[in-house]
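Researcher: Before we compare anything, I want clean individual predictions. No alignment, no superposition, just each chain on its own. First chain goes here; please echo the sequence and then give the structure tokens.
Model: Echoing the first chain and its structure:
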Amino acid sequence: MLGNLLVAGSANSADVLREIASEVGFELDEEGASVIDHLNYDVKDEGQHTLVVAEPENLVKAVPIVGKPGTAPLLYQGTGILTDRENPLVIEVLTASSSAYSYNPDSHVTEFPHAVGKSTVLIAALQARNNARVVFSGSLDFFSDKFFTSAVHKAGGRQFLKSGNEALATALSKWVFHETGVLRAGNVKHHKKGETQPPSEYTVTDQVVYSVELEELIADQWEPFTASDVQLEFVRIDPFVRTALKPGPGSMYSTEFKVPDVYGVFQFKLEYQRLGYTRIYSTTQVSVRPLLHTQYERFIPSAFPYYASAFSMMVSCFIFSFVFIHFKEEPAKSKAE
């Protein structure tokens, strides 16, 4: 899939990298600025404390992006990144500790730094609406062999024989180039309950069965995707039905629902968007018509009182007519009689 980028900068990033970052919703700190942390640094850095030790707890909670969580801390030496937190497409993959800030280590701090504490992003990512991916790191050294194999000894903390840089870099590269976190939907089917073929149109109140196959790319093989939060919507401008898709055999998900008592042009709409996974969007358009005259109920229970009143009027009229026709008054007797 085209349009994927893995970019690594530094404290002295070129203008072209800054322009790329701004195009995807990131901002690199000023030229010469480095992330500084006087509490979370490696003992090999006895001077400016720019060799920052980032804990695995600061990683985003998304296995497709960062892989399975490890225990080894990460080494970072580079500039800070600012992100637009109102942008729903931006992902803060790795943030600094609350004691960190980004500033020029060769200058005195005379004004408030642009990036302070958790707002100092070390590695950021973005997944566009067309599923193109970008990973941006403010440290080129993060991906170096030196940092991959280096031991980590946090000042006043534990010592680790190897950093977690290599594992994270591998997971990030696989994610950004669509080797992990890739989903696809296929084999969409819909039909009336008890049938197997889709009709030319549905009728209001029909019972409908919908099914779809969801798969995930794992080690270059498409495997069944497992999730419990996949939903289907039956939409005519607004959703009339929203129901959960239940996993079935293999990669099949299915559901059954009743068509609403509203006719028009509807869509079966499947939209699945989760952190770290490609967006699934599938729509199937169908028509829903009203009942035919021959399909309406012959007698409606709610109208029984009206039926009773009509029949009672008929019976009353019959009795009245019978009495009126056959009733004969006796002739009046004369005075002589």
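Researcher: Okay. Second chain, same rules.
Model: Second chain and its structure:
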Amino acid sequence: MLTLAAGGFHMWREFASKLDSIALGLRGIREDLGENVASLWRCVHQMNTSNGMSCPQGQDEQTLNVAVHAQTSELPLQLVSGSPRAQPSHCTVFAAVLTQSVSEQETIKFNKVLVNDGDHYDPESGSFWHITDLHLDSSYQESAKPRNVCLTSLGLPVTDAGPFGSHLCDSPWKLVHSALERMRALFPHPDFLIWTGDSPPHLPVGDLSTAAVLDTMRNFTSAILTAFPNTLVFPALGNHDYWPQDQMPGNVCEVYSKVGQMWKEWLTDEALATFKRGGFYTQLVPWNHTQDSTPLRIVSLNTVLYYKPDHSTAGLVDPGGQLAWLKGVLSAAQRDGEKVYVIAHVPPGVDPWHNTTFYNPATNERYLSILRTFADVIVTQMYGHMHNDCFRVLRDTAGTAVGSVFLAPAITPWKPNNGKIASPLANNPGFRLYKYSHEDYGILDLWQYFLNLTDANLKRFADWHIEYKMAATYNLKDLRPHSLAQLAKRLEEPHGKAFALYFKYFLVSFSPNLPCVDCCQWIHACAVNFLDHTAYQRCLAQHRQTERLPSGCFAR
């Protein structure tokens, strides 16, 4: 509905049926609602031929939004974000609101667009999905005896089995499908989708094979293609996407070749050629919001090559030549005026649970040096691997925030175990939607969705819903480096509200009231603030002294 000074609209079903007849007008609006005046007014006049309810002048935005929401609540609605798209098989109902009077000679710019969940569509921003760590356990059987429910419990009895899984098991197919279906229902046409790896289950080497790994990755690729057939997907390899797990080579291998073939629907020939050599690639996002918009480049890295358990690359200065290649790609992007999103599976920085870096220390420092050198080009970085929801702030040598790092939580609810004892902590399944600026591609917000696994199993229904919206939750202007640095500072406040929220969401609301204070707080707060190990240790030492904590407090 276009709610103008001339009046509102009432008959939503009749309105929806007219969308096809005004497709030309909508196409004119798509790129910029103020750009094509003639097309816009043609669209307006057609819509104003409908019968409609009157909207009193001077009605405030909140009241108007509630009224629109009430009118549309019984219709099959879809979340609107990004540029409106012509989709013959879908009907998208939205309301563009013009609250200022204009003449037909003026350029029209709608200042608010209302959608079915009460949020606002911003034509200057876009959105994309991020999923990671799906970890399929195809052996999962809800009705089996406790020790036979799934292989990934490693023989531990599973007493909480339900249709959507258990915290002792990796993901059953039903959980993965429910996640993809919910993502499609929420937002079927993202600008793109990021998938940061780890498809196979957490099983001993002897229980898997290259064929099993490839079969799982093929199934997930097919599932994502089915859920998002018209969406460009940018994938990255995880440490479990190889057999034996963690042992990724820095050269041509069967996995790189065959997985590359699976992903040929998404990647260019040039990207595929690079991927088949070392499991990494780069590719421009093939659209522009305006003719003069800055190009956006995705750089997908194989950071498993730097992962400490990868013995096949131990001692190599630059396995696969990836770091040299990365510097070349970023230098060219800098020269050509491009912006870059870096995606990968294993993140740089410190694993707070083990008080050490994920990469071998020398490579961690070399990688961070490259990120700092090209901080003007790299807009943000996105990873998985930890299964937890967290972020990091990249700082230059003077301590100024120059980069943002986001670690998305896993789909799998599995918690680590050794066959005798399991970790007391786990995560609920989660996926997220990023909001970004069309102008500079800066991250504006992220909407984290989650599934309360216990409730879902009890109700036998997967009620995926918003866990939090980051900017609003932490009262941030956006999620650019400067804003994240402000939040990172607040995480250091002893017993502060910001850190309590952070740790709740870190576990994806697995145990919302679990305290994390003193030593627990500082290992996480320091990991957020410092990605290099020396600075991280210095941060811990400072808190150990100022908070008068025992010297063994941070030992792992």
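Researcher: What stands out in the second chain?
Model: Residues 125-552 form a domain with the Purple Acid Phosphatase; chain A, domain 2 fold (CATH 3.60.21.10). Additionally, Residues 371 and 378 are 7 Å apart (CA to CA).
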